Amino acid sequence: MRGCLPSNVVRDEVAGCLRGNRAAIEAAADPAVIACWIARAIHHLEALAEAATLAMVAHSNGEPAMRTDRQDTIHLQRCVALASEALAAGDDPFGSVLVGPSGDVLAEARNRETSSADPTAHPELALAQWAAGHLPPAVRATATVYTSGEHCPMCAAAHAWVGLGRIVYAASSSQLATWRAGWGVPAGPVAVLPVTAVAPALTVVGPVAPLDEEMRLLHERAAQRRAAH
Ligand SMILES: [Zn+2]
For residue 8, what pLDDT is reported? Predict the structure, then answer.
């Protein structure tokens, strides 16, 4: 029984256990000694497996760091696909998905700033407005917004005013600002702030690798297209 260890500690301990016992077994000549080292390794690995299970349970309960799980990844991948659709349609690559408490997708949106000639046509704002019109407050509070890029201050404020729940994003606003500065894209008119600077009570998770890198590539294509015009 090792208690609830962080998963990276469990992983490192498993690697160390396998390495150490392998060295001991390779150095041993007596079959009884070899059997003893194998039994030690099994005992150690069983304890680590228990610790890993406890870490998994803590993870699914949202403790301690509320990292992403497989469902989060699936929804974020959909956001990246929506961002790619937006880019193909001439808009900037941003996509978002609103997911209900049982994991069902309630609504999707993508950026339409260029195609609708509306600089506020951000997907996160569209989802907040959809939720305000379609969901009772209790359901909104349990819904998660997945998004390819962290909410801008306008969308973070809308999210908080509407009373939506958790935000999970692939790439952060500061990542995007850094990438764009590197490509020579002029800064926008709104300050680059983390969601929690606008709405401190929100639960926010991100950035999520390797999807942030996928988003960097999409934004780079958008920057190249902008430079060519
Ligand atoms: Zn926005």
Answer: 56
Tell me how far the alpha carbon of residue 2 is from its chain's centroid. Answer: 28
Judged by DSSP in three states, 151 sits in: coil
β-pairing verdict for 144-149 and 105-110: unpaired
Ligand 1 center to residue 69 CA distance, Å? 25
Residues of the chain above pLDDT 90, percent: 69
Q: Which tops the pLDDT comparison, 30 or 198?
A: 198
Q: Could you tell me which residues are beta bridge partners of residue 96?
A: 109, 147
CA of 122 to the centre of ligand 1 (A): 5
Q: How confident is the model at residue 158 (pLDDT cuts 50, 70, 90)?
A: very high
| 191 alpha carbon – ligand 1 mean position (Å) | 11
Mean pLDDT of all residues in 37-49: 69
Residues β-bridged to residue 36: none
pTM to 2 decimals? 0.72
Alpha carbons 136 and 13: distance in angstroms, whole number: 47
Contact between 84 and 101 under an 8 Å Cβ cutoff? The reply is: no
What amino acid occupies position 44?
H
Q: Distance, CA 175 to ligand 1 centroid (Å)?
A: 15
Q: Does the pLDDT value for residue 25 go beyond 60?
A: yes
User: How many angstroms separate the alpha carbon of residue 70 from the centre of ligand 1?
Assistant: 26
> Is the pLDDT assigned to residue 57 strictly greater than 90?
no
As a whole number of angstroms, the distance between CA 51 and CA 46 comes to 9
- How far away, in angstroms, is 153 Cα from ligand 1 center? 7
Cα 152 to averaged position of ligand 1 atoms, centre (Å): 4
Cα separation, 210 vs 65, in Å, equals 18
